[in-house]
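ugh ok so i messed up the first submission bc i forgot one of the chains. this is the corrected input, ALL of the components this time, i swear. 228 residues overall. if the numbers dont match what u have on ur side tell me asap before i send this to the collaborators (the ones from the other lab, u know who)
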Amino acid sequence: KQEVTQIPAALSVPEGENLVLNCSFTDSAIYNLQWFRQDPGKGLTSLLLIQSSQREQTSGRLNASLDKSSGRSTLYIAASQPGDSATYLCASEGAGGTSYGKLTFGQGTILTVHP
Amino acid sequence: GAGVSQSPRYKVAKRGQDVALRCDPISGHVSLFWYQQALGQGPEFLTYFQNEAQLDKSGLPSDRFFAERPEGSVSTLKIQRTQQEDSAVYLCASSLGGNSPLHFGNGTRLTVT
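and heres the new structure output, hopefully the right one now
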């Protein structure tokens, strides 16, 4: 059974810092790895999706990398802003015929960026 | 509407009551998912529909949980004889299917007292 772990559980940084969120998974047979953002009382917003054949994806100040062999992904946020404050979740989608949106999530990293 | 709509936003039930949670997916989305998110945790998969067919219900925690999507659009998640451990946010997501991204609703927060 796939297990996804995120470190750290919480992170508080001053505005402007570059930061890295970590995600590890136990089963490397994944179809893709996704990063989501969740604001309090809201659903999940997809940030980046990395297919299993890819190494990284970038969107604006966000960059996500994937190392399947070591079971790791990182989300890099450049020049953090208070508006980046949210919970960040990573999720793997299984391979082998189960790749239809059945995601296994980590427990999330709560990010606070203070002015 | 433009997004996935869930109702009610909040539900308080006394232990032992039955509840029904509704999900309106994005029009035309074939795939629909239910996830359960306990406080401080990531969402956990409950069940998956492709049109009206429930293709995977492996995540439903007990036979008190039942989901349906009779016309391949709106879905209802029903929990019978609610227990305190059922307290969580229930998230619905839909997609066009295949490799399309999931679109999540804002969830229903269920509190069982």
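quick check: Chain A touches chain B at residues 4, 41-46, 49, 89, 91, 99-108 (CB under 8 Å). that seems consistent at least. Chain A has a mean pLDDT of 93.
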